[in-house]
Amino acid sequence: MSQPPSLQDATFRSLRDYIYAQTGIFVPDSKKYFLENRLARRIAENKLSSFDDYLPFLLSRGNGELKSLYGVVTTNETYFFREPQQFDVFTKHILPRVLDRKRNKEIRVWSAACSSGEEPYTVAAILKETAPAVRAEIIGSDISDGVLESARRGIYSTYSVRVVPPYYQQKYFRSMGETYEFDEGIRKTVKFMNVNLIDEKAVRAIRDVDVILCRNVLIYFDDKSKRKAVSLMYDALAPNGFLMVGTSESLHSVTRALQPTVIDRVVLYQKAGS
Ligand SMILES: C[S@@+](CC[C@H](N)C(=O)[O-])C[C@H]1O[C@@H](n2cnc3c(N)ncnc32)[C@H](O)[C@@H]1O
Fold this sequence. Notes:
The chain is α/β, with parallel strands linked by helices. It contains 12 helices and 10 strands. The strands form 2 sheets. A 7-stranded mixed β-sheet has the order 6-2-1-7-8-10-9. A 3-stranded antiparallel β-sheet has the order 3-5-4. The protein is globular, with a radius of gyration of 20 Å. Bound molecules: S-adenosylmethionine.
């Protein structure tokens, strides 16, 4: 039986640098095994004989293979109402402030790096419950087309819905045996798009956002790409808009442009007013 190909250090570094340049995701030397495991699927599927063949193959295939690469190098863990204290603060403090400022006219919320949609759908359900009369544009974006397809499909596992409050569970989910379908009406209120957070042109298409949720993605970036993504999101925010990162993350060494504010032990970053 032939041995599976192994990833040599020099090839690892070339692939790592390429992935970093395209996505901002930095794979440290200590995570070489991660890249080796994830890329093994691309090698096998494309019937390549070694990792050395992969980069030339990728460059010759262009966008199609690049999208598959994004599918394997990203970590897509997510679930409804993840980090619920942030959604409490969103509901009780951020939303009232934004609505007051906007005088209840349309508000815009962007779930940047939304994976399979649980985060923007959580926002959409909260908005439907707490501000049903307000017009809201909710955007869910990700670099990976595979997860965006799942998001549009709206079918979720027990794992994804396990911390959904019972009221929301009953009202917005239809049980289908082992899976749950998220309410179709609310699904339609979320616009999904492919946006790479370090792609200036793509991010510039999104403007005047009142709240950005960018949770659990910058942890995969190094400081330089964090700074780039945060500065592009800063430009996408409306004056007084809020940026929320994951509870374990901090923008302390990343930006001074956004003002950190703590509400009920949740840290938020706010853009100054105009
Ligand atoms: C761990 S999930 C976070 C999902 C959700 N925000 C949450 O907190 O539950 C990280 C997501 O970031 C996406 N991602 C990674 N690099 C990205 C980039 N450069 N631009 C946009 N999305 C990216 C991945 O595809 C993945 O779906």
